[in-house]
Design brief:
lipid metabolism, elongated, Butyryl-CoA Dehydrogenase, subunit A, domain 2, AcylCoA_DH/oxidase_NM_dom_sf, alpha/beta, fatty acid binding
């Protein structure tokens, strides 16, 4: 073969041209990038003319030209160094200068590599040379990403993470549940000693009055162990939170400091065997007896017991949710502090507790069943912020409407629902970190021409299964941080929208976390099945997050109802006519006809446009809202009772709730990204946002196709872009999981 020689100013572009034409990646937008680079480069006009000839989409280079380019690359003897910030730029410059190293990067080449997103996995199979690989490019700083995520909580979180290095938090496989529970209790008391449990309480009770910071501590605890996280949450968040949010100063003064110090152990007795999500229907009664000025707690039937109560085997006191009966009238569900054990740990008279036994996970949490038989407590034990019994035995409440009173009471506890979503997300982050770091060292398969097997992280299928959920984790982190802040700053009359958001996000994120952890388990093969490598432990612990603090399928429907009523009626109201009055006024809101040009638009600029993403999410939410409302109205016109009409659209409402959570998450993420000061980080986060948006649109491609929102060609283009972004993020994948800020001690496993 005749040897072709080129000048250095042309030679430096040869690897780029070879990669692009070999993989047929050239598109109009990419030609534009290449042309701009050539035009701004300080090379000769003759060189520019030659290069422009080779980027003509109408006339691709001859096969013999491609072969000559390949020979130049192969004969150079140079190694492509994947750990370089710009691997192909570095290689091309060394090729042109016939040098083994380069000090600076050519800006024209760097511009192409960045804007075309060319990454090593695009060209591994094209270069007949040995490639030095590294786990990740060091272009972005994991520390800066972590700092960005911690936000204003950084001082507290950093100090807390240092605390997690204590040997008391070392990972152990403890099979005996009693031993495991006692170990977790010791850990909880260890943290309480330094004030971490009381952070959401006011200064007078050992805290800093900061619920968002408490939530950040809670999510970081999940990096240690799920049982510790939940036991911590039950003691300080549910039990202590019920005293703080449902009680008044007399309760705060008497119980909060002791609770925050873990000197008073408590539990949150809401759920019953026959009534889980339907709190309003609990059967336990709390009857005021005027003669003794006491409230008597009673479990009316064998299956009306409190069920699955965390801390039930260790607690001295319980916040019991029961039907409050005063002067023969049922005033609805209220919370009453009830002592269930004495200081020596003996059960109080009339209290019966049974162990729930071994579970799929969280066996360090002492879940139990509780029955009450004629258990009397002082009248003052009624948590009386929203309903009280005066000394004359009369019931009073600042909220006259019983429905509003009930949902206002539950609304004060929605912070726990947000914390559950944060904890589940941390479980997914930890599993992703282990799976990614394993994939960056595990090799499998190769071609006949290569001695070294390929890293499994370099396979496109592996990138899709791990990098997509990494992007989602970043999006979900930001929306939950915003939500907990909004909740902490909200007033009682402005919490309806927050409750809807919390319901939708808790369901969506805990579902996502479970799916992600399973994907990580599979991505680690047989090693991922060993408990010592922590993923099975995380999997067992996070599984239940889809159920407690509200069953996901129920919650997502409650969110859908909140959307339908535009937050103008009581959240979770049983008065379906309130919903119908609202949606009846909206049925004339016709959706705009889709422009055919839009449905077929596939260029890169459009697919990466945040306005396209926002519009796609909004269209899906609006369309589903409109169609649910239309169906319900149609059933009502046929004489079907409103309750039954809503049952008929349950699956439709689930779709609506999910669509709403996706739109909410993306919009909040965009707001977060706009505030990032550093340009490089903002560029990275925008790419993560694009991956989230395009992944979700691709996931719902069938729906968008059914409604004519996108064409088949556009659907294919979106799918390809998802794959492309994953490959572009591949060099930074280790930095991205390190950006979660998980302490190294929490990731210490035999697999890594």
């Amino acid at each position: 073969m005749k040897k072709t020689t080129y000048t250095a100013e042309i030679l430096k572009y040869i690897p780029f041209l070879y990669v692009i034409w070999s993989d047929e990646l050239l598109s109009p937008s990419e030609i534009s990038v290449f042309k701009k680079s050539i035009e701004t480069d300080s090379i000769s006009e003759a060189a520019k003319t030659t290069l422009k000839k080779w980027i003509n989409a109408e006339e691709s280079p001859l096969d013999e030209t491609l072969v000559s380019w390949k020979k130049i690359i192969n004969d150079s003897g140079l190694k492509l160094i994947e750990s370089d910030a710009y691997p192909l730029t570095s290689f091309s410059m060394r090729l042109a200068s016939n040098s083994q190293s380069t000090e600076i990067y050519d800006e024209s080449l760097k511009y192409i590599e960045i804007n075309l997103g060319i990454q090593p996995n695009h060209y591994h199979h094209l270069f007949d040379v040995k490639i030095e690989t590294a786990s990740s490019a060091a272009f972005y700083s994991a520390e800066k990403i972590d700092t960005l995520l911690k936000g204003e909580h950084a001082p507290y979180v950093d100090k807390f993470r240092e605390k997690l290095n204590d040997p008391i938090f070392d990972f152990q496989i403890i099979r005996n549940k009693e031993e495991f529970r006692n170990h977790v209790l010791t850990q909880v008391k260890f943290l309480a000693k330094d004030g971490y449990g009381a952070m959401a309480y006011d200064n007078a009770y050992g805290g800093i009055g900061n619920m968002p910071t408490y939530a950040s501590i809670f999510e970081n605890l999940m990096y240690v162990d799920g049982s510790l996280t939940i036991k911590f949450g039950v003691q300080f968040g549910l039990f202590g939170g019920s005293i703080q949010n449902l009680g008044t100063k007399k309760h705060h003064d008497k119980y909060l400091k002791e609770t925050g110090e873990a000197n008073l152990l408590g539990c949150f007795a809401m759920t019953e065997t026959r009534h889980g999500s339907n709190v309003r229907g609990v059967k336990t009664t709390a009857t005021y007896v005027k003669e003794t000025d006491s409230i008597v707690i009673e479990t009316p039937g064998e299956n009306d017991n409190k069920e699955y109560i965390g801390n039930a085997l260790h607690a001295e006191m319980a916040t019991v949710f029961a039907q409050l009966i005063v002067n023969g009238k049922n005033e609805g569900v209220h919370a009453i502090l009830t002592r269930i054990r004495d200081k020596d740990g003996n059960l109080m008279p009339g209290v019966k507790v049974e162990d729930n036994g071994y579970k799929l996970g969280l066996n360090g949490v002492d879940n139990g069943k509780i029955w009450f038989s004629n258990v009397a407590v002082p009248r003052e034990n009624l948590l009386n912020r929203y309903g009280d019994i005066d000394k004359d035995g009369n019931y009073t409440s600042p909220i006259e409407n019983p429905n509003k009173r009930f949902f206002t009471m539950l609304g004060t506890l929605v912070g726990g629902r947000i914390c559950v979503a944060k904890g589940a997300l941390s479980g997914a982050k930890k599993a992703l970190s282990i799976a990614v770091k394993y994939a960056l060292q595990r090799r499998q398969f190769n071609s006949n021409e290569k001695i070294q097997e390929d890293l499994i992280m370099d396979y496109p299928t592996h990138q899709l299964r791990l990098i997509k959920p990494i992007a989602k984790s970043y999006v979900y982190h930001t929306v939950l941080d915003k939500l907990i802040k909004d909740y902490a700053n909200s007033k009682e009359d402005g919490r309806r929208e927050i409750e809807t958001q919390a319901a939708a996000l808790k369901a969506s994120i805990t579902w996502f976390s479970n799916q992600t952890i399973q994907e990580c388990r599979e991505a680690c093969g047989g090693k991922g099945y060993l408990i010592e490598n922590k993923i099975p432990h995380i999997k067992g612990d996070v599984d239940i997050f889809t159920t407690f603090e509200g069953d996901n399928t129920v919650l997502i429907q409650l969110a859908a109802k909140g959307i339908l009523t535009n937050f103008k009626t009581e959240f979770n109201s049983d008065n379906f006519m309130d919903v119908l009055k609202y949606v009846g006024t909206q049925l004339s809101d016709r959706l705009t006809t889709i422009n055919p040009i839009f449905t077929n638009k596939t260029d890169k600029e459009h697919l990466f446009d945040t306005e396209f993403h926002k519009e796609a999410f909004e269209y899906r939410t609006r369309r589903l809202t409109f169609s649910v409302a239309s169906r319900v109205q149609k059933y009502i016109k046929k004489g079907i009772p409103s309750y039954q009409a809503f049952l008929k659209v349950q699956t439709h409402m689930v779709m609506l709730g999910k669509a709403y959570s996706e739109e909410l998450s993306y919009n909040e993420f965009l707001n977060f990204v706009e505030k990032i000061q550093e340009e490089e980080l903002r560029f990275l986060f925008k790419k993560l946002g694009a991956l989230f948006a395009l992944s979700e649109i691709n996931h719902h491609a069938a729906w968008y196709l059914e409604h004519g929102y996108i064409s088949a060609n556009k659907s294919k283009a979106i799918r390809k872009q998802v794959e492309r972004i994953c490959s572009e993020l591949r060099p930074h994948v280790n930095t991205l999981v390190d950006g979660f800020g998980i302490p190294k001690s929490c990731l210490k496993t035999p697999i890594l």
